[in-house]
Amino acid sequence: MLALNSWRISRSSRALLKLRTGRQAVSKAVTCSGHCMSTSFTMKDTWQGSMDFTTRGRDRLHSYNSLPVKSHRSYCIGQAKLSCWSCKQPLEETPAFFCLSCNMVQPPEAETSYFQIMDCDYTFTLDTHKLQRRYLQLQRSLHPDNFSQKSAKEQEYSESQSALVNKAYKTLLKPLSRGLYMLELQGMRIEEGTDSGADSEFLMELMEINEALDEAQSPEQAERIGRDMKEKLAELTEEIDAALLKGELQGAKALLAQMKYYANIEEKVKEKLSGFM
After folding, report:
1. Number of folded domains that form the chain
2. pLDDT (tens digit, 9 = 90+) per residue, 149-184?
């Protein structure tokens, strides 16, 4: 009987030790997972900078951040940081345009989001004034003319960084290209010249608008169509923003497809008006 009790006590001790070890393993896994997530270049990374947001802004940002990103890179603290190509010191900023130690211009970082490059909130209704300020700031420091007397490598990096900033700025400036880029980050793409997803009634409406524009005999008639397009685009902007906030990517994709058509007509209105001059 004493031996049996000793065996039961020993067995209980081993089970308790195993349980504690399991809990510690789970705790470490959760800690590592949280650590990795906090340092991943996803939508919820440092793209928002150090701005303070209102409660509504934080809720909006949280909604966008909850969407999974198809194109991103993540790493744990144990993974090596990027280093300066010149002085070999670790680069403290992401993205790093210059080394803080030697002030050398750095090459573009792979898979860096345009939102991160332009230090903009990851939102469809981003602040375009802030975007423009950031663009001017970066181009003043990265423009190739500033490196004409520098080494060939610095000239090369300044040209590639400047070109990347230009592309990021142009992509994020307009709602249509911005929305398409946001879908691209989610692994979704709207193919050019495909009408398969368009409603027949919608296509008929577009045909009538185009015909009215072709038949416009005065700048006033063309401007009236242009105002209608601006109103439709404004409405679609709100609907796309709402769809993205809810994570309804297919709905946002369909709305962006409509936006492409209306944006094309808006460009035709500008061409028509230039013809009256």
Report:
1. 3
2. 999 999 999 999 999 999 999 999 999 999 999 999
Shared-domain flag, residues 207 and 154: no
What sign for the dihedral angle of Cα 235, 237, 238, 244? positive
Listed range (33-47, 71-85, 175-189, 260-274) with the worst mean pLDDT: 33-47
Alpha carbon distance, N-terminus to C-terminus of the chain: 108
User: Which residue in 116, 111, 108 sits closest to 85, CA to CA?
Assistant: 108
Say if CB 155 and CB 148 are below 8 A apart.
Answer: yes
pLDDT beyond 80 at 15 = no
Q: Which domain holds residue 102?
A: 80-173
What single letter denotes the amino acid at residue 243?
A
Contact 34, 72 (CB under 8 A): no
**110 burial via Cβ count (<10 Å: 0-12, 13-18, 19+):** exposed
